[in-house]
Amino acid sequence: MAIVITPNKACAVNPLKMSQPIGGAFAFMGLRGAMPLLHGSQGCTSFGLTLFVRHFKEAVPLQTTAMSEMTTVLGGYDNVEQAILNIYNRTKPEIIGICSTGVTETNGDDVDGYIKLIRKKHPQLANYPLVYVSTPDFKDAFQDGWEKAVARMVELLVARPAAEAKRDPARVNVLPGCHLSPGDLDELRTILEDFGLKPAFLPDLAGSLDGHIPEEFTPTTIGGIGVDDVASMGQSGWTIAIGTQMRRAAEAMQAKTGVPFRLFERLCGLIPNDEFIAFLSEISGRPVPSKYRRQRGQLADAMLDAHFHIGGRKLAIGAEPDLLFDLSCMLHEMGAQVTAAVTTTQSPVLKRIRTNEVLIGDLEDLEELARRGGCDLLITHSHGRQAAARLKIPFFRAGFPMFDRIGAGHQLTVGYRGTRDLIFDIANLVIADREDNHQPTPDTWRTSAPPLRSGRRSFIDATESSIA
């Protein structure tokens, strides 16, 4: 069990975490025809917008209430009202999602109260979807903002089913964590549909930020799940939550609609995907399609092949809690040792990461821990590239933002196929670094590489029949 440490540094040096407001805004981008709105200064929105555009290489809708020093002190009602009216009249979105920022939270703006007054003053907004979530950026992190925004959507947008309404057992709600890419959601959708299920993702970034070119420009999000589809989620047979951060939204869905949920803390690795596929077979009443038996065999073979390159490596990983848990568990199963682990915020999964300590800190902390621990692979988002260069070790980019490579929105890490590709990417990075440094080729030390943890070969043999 890892010890979670919260440092008392006076400031963050080369920050690891992204703020709560952009995490909340990110969640609203998974709704069709949405316009996220940050209640704060123009600079707060500009910074978040820059991160999103550089990561996805796409046009991203994001607006601001443009609070100044004076309006921040006097209260932001007028700015919120004017922003909502301008967005409603000019861009005509299906929904406006409002996230607070540090300056307005410090002043104590009652945005829920503002929205009630605005609805009363402007009858055309009486039933218009306006969702507000409190996301001060002086506390918590990106993952927390996403978690709160999705839970708030469930609370306000999902309708309570009528007493006589029947659930459709083929319909499945999927609540994905912010660590999953649009490519991950597309893969999950394919897997669910192969079992005859009809998934509805909340949020659905695969529809809005997957990099497709629309037929015509729209100032709002160009895809995602519609407000009406969210409202009908109470008629589904099951809710699948992915990542510990989604427990809150899944519990809110169950409390409001009675739809049971199953939480999968991670979907990267052999065992988690065995459990996921077995669950889908159970709720659908269908056997596992042969393509997934084949993919499972490919993953098992990839683990055996790549552990000669990954096994025994000392890793330094910096990421949001759910992504840190996901990657560290999978790589631990491959025989790697997580020597340095740094994250952004508290989470129940941190204590179960296979390392001695997990530090809530920044990239300076990650670099120092990696240096002291003799790490030979660094995994974090693009802001860690300078640290990797100073440490002279391979650098694998994971998480948000990833702005110095293309294809971040299509990076695949879930399912048998995604885990296989991730293992190959990391192993190939290690091989390329070894070649650049003129180290021995794998064939000269293949027999001395450490084995997979927990007798992985015997596990694979023993569980083949369980998924077949």
What report would you give on this structure?
The protein is an alpha/beta fold and 468 residues long. Helix content is 45%, strand content 15%. Helix 1 (20-28) crosses helix 7 (142-157). The protein is globular. The protein has helices spanning 20-28, 42-56, 69-74, 77-90, 102-107, 111-121, 142-157, 182-194, 205-208, 227-231, 247-257, 270-284, 290-310, 321-333, 363-373, 385-391, 415-436, 456-467, and strands at 3-5, 34-39, 63-64, 95-100, 130-133, 168-176, 198-201, 236-242, 261-264, 314-318, 337-343, 357-360, 377-380, 395-397. A six-stranded parallel sheet has the order 1-12-11-10-13-14, with helices on both faces. Strands 3-2-4-5 form a four-stranded parallel sheet, with helices on both faces. A four-stranded parallel sheet has the order 7-6-8-9, sandwiched between helices. The protein is built from 18 helices and 14 strands.
Q: End-to-end span in angstroms? A: 33 Å
Strand composition percent = 5-15%
The overall pLDDT average reads: 92
In percent, how helical is the residue content?
A: 40-55%
Strands of the widest sheet, in order across it, are 1-12-11-10-13-14
Q: Mind describing the biggest β-sheet?
A: 6 strands, parallel
SS elements, strand count:
14
Q: Per the principal axes of the C-alpha atoms, what is the gross shape?
A: globular
Low-pLDDT windows of residues:
444-450, 454-466
How large is the radius of gyration? 23 Å
Please count the helical segments: 18
Brief write-up:
The chain is an alpha/beta fold.
Task: Please write out the topology.
Blueprint: E1 3-5, H1 20-28, E2 34-39, H2 42-56, E3 63-64, H3 69-74, H4 77-90, E4 95-100, H5 102-107, H6 111-121, E5 130-133, H7 142-157, E6 168-176, H8 182-194, E7 198-201, H9 205-208, H10 227-231, E8 236-242, H11 247-257, E9 261-264, H12 270-284, H13 290-310, E10 314-318, H14 321-333, E11 337-343, E12 357-360, H15 363-373, E13 377-380, H16 385-391, E14 395-397, H17 415-436, H18 456-467
Parallel strand pairs: 1-12, 2-3, 2-4, 4-5, 6-7, 6-8, 8-9, 10-11, 10-13, 11-12, 13-14
Helix pairs in contact: 1-7, 7-11, 13-17
